[in-house]
Amino acid sequence: MLLSHLLKPLSFPLEEEVEVTGIAEDSRQVEEGYLFFAYRGISSDGNDFIEDALERGCCAVITDSERSYRKLRGKLPVFLVSEPRKTLSLLSARFYGNPERKVRVIGITGTNGKTTTALLTFQALKRLSVKSGYVGTLGYGMSLDSLSPTGMTTPSPTTFFKILKEFADRGCCYVVCEVSSHGLELDRVFGVPFEVAVFTNLTPEHLDFHKDLFSYFLSKEKLFFSAKSSLINVDDRWGVALSALREIFPGISFTYGKAGDFKILEFRDGLLSLNFQGKVYQVPSSLRGDFNGYNLCASFSTLTLLGFEPEKVKDSFYGLRVPGRLEEVYPRVFVDYAHTPDALLKLLKTVSSFTEGRLITVFGCGGERDREKRAPMGRIAYELSDVVIITSDNPRGEDPQRIIADILKGIPSRENVFIIPDRKKAIEKALSIKGDNDVVVIAGKGHEDYQLIGKRKIPFKDQQVVKEFYERRGSC
Q: Annotated motif Meso-diaminopimelate recognition motif: location in the chain (predicted)?
């Protein structure tokens, strides 16, 4: 694409015409003919890598630094912008032919429930014979069995719009996206006209990034100012606050929950009963737990707002699975992604409701992330479990023993508490002491197939550890 054509919406003066073959914000991804975005980030400054980008063949630079701008003037096309992230999103979309206008994008945000709600919606669309794509925590793709990794829940604009183009080229009508607070705060989806925006809930998380809960909320709020329709859980106090802003949202706003427009009447044994506009719908599923009642309601409501007949929608969920979300990998052995106090609380309460023997919980907390949530998670695990095994999650560059020490601050007694930093050994310990009626919950990593230790990304999957344990026992 000619640089003049790419930059046309921005009205930049152009002294030299060049052909742009790609866009990158990471100099390591630059190839011959790329437009390089150099701007100050959270932990590094892209302006420090301009020379590397030039050596790799970049043909033009967009920067937020006057110093870089003056240094490059006359050497190649260079442009100074005040909002580089928004510019990156707009130009990435334009470079890929504005695919966000060729598919109908559904955005789902919230602390917990994004993945389950998104995957229920994505799979239900397929059952309704509608070609659709998914982008989120598990990766991206058009089939749950063949997702490709993205590295982030909401990828960078250069990746995100490339994915949308792929979906549009393959004939997708809808794309279901998990939209993270990081993605919103960093303008990764800026300019996307969301067909429906969904808010699931808000509890403390990512406060190492957002600093406080209100700032976290303000990031989530951004999604609803670019949506044609919004759907908000008003059984959540932050959902109530968000719903109070519905008059200034550009689109139509609906609510869900026990006090919502889509009114939850009951969720029992996987069957959701809800009332919408005076009519009661029975929505069968294979899901457990009150929290999944909300996820199911959000998905049903989203599809209804998209114009699908509720009578057809209600029969689209039974048997649908969500990897790593209350996933029973062996009888009475569950793997779940719960990694916040609220998610762990809801998970253990749900599992307790059908546990006949002991509840054995294996969990840890991520390193270089919110330290404030560690002690509360320890307290929750201790109060709701009969046996607690504290282990490593993704320690990253933090000392696992320090993380464990933080968790132990929430645990009043060491009785029936084991500390086993090696996650594989911790899981095996839980399985080895499990009685016939006991239930084991392995929390924190869910679908993940790796462990982050130091700077290494090591292959590791909770489900595989369980499988191999029982294979050795001759039980599979």
A: 393-396
* Cβ-contact 433, 472 below 8 angstroms: no
The CATH superfamily assigned to 3-95 is MurE/MurF, N-terminal domain (3.40.1390.10)
* 369 annotated as belonging to a binding site for a ligand: yes
- Tokens 């606050």 map to which residue? 241
304 belongs to an annotated ligand binding site: no
Give the tens place of pLDDT for each residue, 175-224.
Answer: 999 999 999 999 999 999 999 999 999 997 766 676 789 999 999 999 99
C-alpha angle 264/268/271, rounded to 5°? 75
Residue 159 known to bind ligand: no
* Residue 454 counted as an annotated binding residue: no
180 is in an annotated binding site: yes
Instruction: Kindly list the domain boundaries of the chain, sorted by start residue.
Output: 3-95, 99-313, 327-473
Closest by Cα among 154, 151, 140, 224 to 188: 154
Which tens digit of pLDDT belongs to each residue from 366-376? 999 889 999 99
The answer to the question of whether 113 is labelled as a binding residue is yes
Flag whether 153 is marked binding. Answer: yes
Provide the 10 A C-beta neighbour count for residue 313.
Answer: 22
Query: Is 178 annotated among the ligand-binding residues?
Result: no
Tell me the CATH architecture of domain 327-473: Alpha-Beta Complex (3.90)
Among residues 235, 206, 178, the alpha carbon closest in space to that of 366 is found at 206
Question: CATH for 99-313, among 3.60.150.10, 3.40.50.970, 3.40.1190.10, 3.40.718.10?
Answer: 3.40.1190.10
First to last CA, the chain: 56
399 marked among binding-site residues: no
**β-strand partners of 359:** 439
* pTM across the whole model: 0.92
Tell me the C-alpha distance between 458 and 452, whole Å.
Answer: 6
